Structures are given as C-alpha cells and as structure tokens.
Amino acid sequence: IVSVGNAAHLEVADYLAYLGEQYDCTCVLLYIESISDTERFAQVARSVAAKKPVVAMVGGRTAQGGSAVRNHTGGIAMPDAEAQTFLASCGVIRVKSLRHLLLAAKGFGFHPQGIGKRVLLFSNSGGPGVITTDRLIDEGMGMPPLPGAYATELAALLPPEAAVANPIDMLADAREDRFSPAFESALRHASGQFDAILMIHVVPFMVDAGPIIDELARVAKDAPMPLFHSMMGTLEHKQNWFATMESAGVAMFNDAEEMAETAAILAQYPPLKAAVTA
Hints:
By secondary structure, the protein is α/β, with parallel strands linked by helices. It has twelve helices and eight strands. The chain has two domains: 12-96, Rossmann fold (3-Layer(aba) Sandwich); 119-269, Rossmann fold (3-Layer(aba) Sandwich), CATH 3.40.50. The chain has a five-stranded parallel beta sheet, sandwiched between helices. Strands 1-2-3 form a three-stranded parallel beta sheet, with helices on both faces. The two termini are 31 Å apart.
C-alpha cells in the first residue's frame, strides 16, 4: 500500500511505473483524486496494463465530491464522463466504490489475466440462482445454454425436479454424491463453451457441507478454467471451508452477488489489454 499524499514530490504515475516493473505485483489498485499530467499517466498506465491489470477508483466524480477534492489536496477532480473515457483509453478498469476495488483485488489475486464473459452458473438453490443470474446479466456477462452432451449427462445425474439449464439447480438436498459428478461433468464439457464456472452453495440444516467441500476442492485443483464459489449464511466451519477451497485455487465469497460483480470486473481486463497492446 502506497499513499502519495498531495503528490508534492512523486505522483501516482511514478508509483504506477514502479509497480508495473515488480514481478511479485500482479495487479495494481489506484485511488485517484486528480491527475496533473494526464499525458504521462496515460503513457505509463498503457504500458503497465499491457502486463497486468490496473484498477482505479476516482474520487470527486460528483460536483460535491469535486469540491471536497479541492479542499482536500487542492487538486482538480476529473468529471465523471471524462474519467470514464480517459481511463478506458489507458487500459484501466474503473470502479466506483471501495467495495468493488477490494473485490477486484480478490478476483485478480486468483485470476490475474482476467476472464471471458461466458459464465456457467452452478447452484443448489433456485432463488440465489435467479438473483445471481440477474446480477450477471446486469453486469454485461453472458450465460450461454448448456452444450447438448452436458445437458444429457446432467439430466441422468440429477433428480427429475432439478433444473438442467444455465443456471443449473441441483436442489437444496444435494450432497457430495450429486455435487461431485455434476461438477466433474461440467469441467469435461464446459471448456471452450464457457470462460468460468460460478458456484452457489447454500447449506441446509440436514446436509453436512464438509464432504462436499472436500470433493469440490479435490476436483477443482485440476480445473481447466477459473472457478468462483459462494457459501451463503452463517456457518460454523465456514472459515475452514473457505481455506480448503482457496487452497485449490477457487475464489470464495460470502455473497453470490459479490461473486457475480467480481467476475464482471475481471471480464473487463482482456479487451482492455488487447486494446493497449494492439
């Protein structure tokens, strides 16, 4: 974490250039109130964004916020629409909240090259599946239909009441004997059809989630695509379950909507990177 204060000696672009050269730094997060030399910032940002994601939150995007910036550092805040256009031209992903800035940090920590927009949503609960689907579509993500071979295989694995579509609903009583083969089947058929798999895991009182997590983590270690998983609710062993899944390379979330928002932030990077390297 670097704070530039009022940038009297070194500016954001100076630190961005330095962090761009650091191999151990795989993503750069910026909070910016003003940019004194936009030409130099753009040159540095494009160079860094060609190698790693750069995510920025711009303070002072409202009239009142801009006034607060002047009172804070004496800087001139960039108007909202101008900031959007300028950062996109620099290859920088723009977010508008600290929460989204932190979600970007988490997501890029697992998948530093970002993801594509085609998502398979894998769930054991219908309501959260609907909510997350709406969030994914609102965020500009795509949810293609299931490949025919996968749909056929999944229908044979799941109860007749389950939803064999995207999103998949395996039903709330699903245990490891349903989760594991359905997930393994997804990984066999999803490559080339989807860019990431997002999982929603609601834990009802009658199901022990431990064996499910153990099976999912075992399979996830060799997964050929980015994986995200959310476990909703207050759960006694949640911290341990998160650690097990994250050690297998799965980004874990308490909230399925945050998972969807993170995926959408990561999906912005590949086209921005392509634009600055063209």
